[in-house]
């Protein structure tokens, strides 16, 4: 299966290797499993965090004018469990209905700090018919960690999630 998938990249990780394509297959299976939404987003967060540069992974859902943290995986909990839309990178991605990649969080005035070691961040809205339902938020402890592959991969996970959330 090496190199034949859509995303093509394989990364060395602590325990063996992580392939975006193998991960995409596992995620698609669970998303289509018919399990409860919360169980699915918990699983998605845990699986995504296997990618070495994904330090903290969360899924926020939209509730009225706020983003509410539904699931997360990472070394510690965030204080930002409810974020007003329009606040932070998280709020901006939903307000603009587009993926936002921040290569250096310390250089972005919109950034709401959660963890001292975060250096870069990607936020991918989960859209259905152009309306935002939720979003995937990922922090990395590396500067400029997120590539075009990450964006394409996560947008495809977001599209799958949009069909069940
Ligand atoms: N940094 C985010 C807030 C959420 S935490 O990263 C989990 C932001 O700027 O919106």
Write the layout of secondary structure elements.
Layout: E1 10-12, E2 17-19, H1 20-31, H2 37-48, E3 56-63, E4 66-73, E5 82-84, H3 88-96, E6 100-102, E7 120-128, E8 131-140, H4 148-162
The structure holds methionine sulfoxide.
Give a quick set of tags describing it.
single chain, 165 residues, alpha+beta, six-stranded antiparallel sheet, two-stranded antiparallel ribbon, 4 helices, 8 strands, 29% helix, 28% strand, binds methionine sulfoxide
Number of strands: 8
Distance between the termini: 30 Å
Poorly predicted residue ranges? none
Q: Bound small molecules, which ones?
A: methionine sulfoxide
Return Rg in Å.
Answer: 15 Å
> Secondary-structure element sequence?
EEHHEEEHEEEH
Main sheet summary: 6 strands, antiparallel
Strand fraction band?
A: 25-35%
Structural class: alpha+beta
How helical, in percent, are the residues? 25-40%
The strands making up the biggest β-sheet line up spatially as: 5-4-3-8-7-6
Specify the overall morphology.
globular
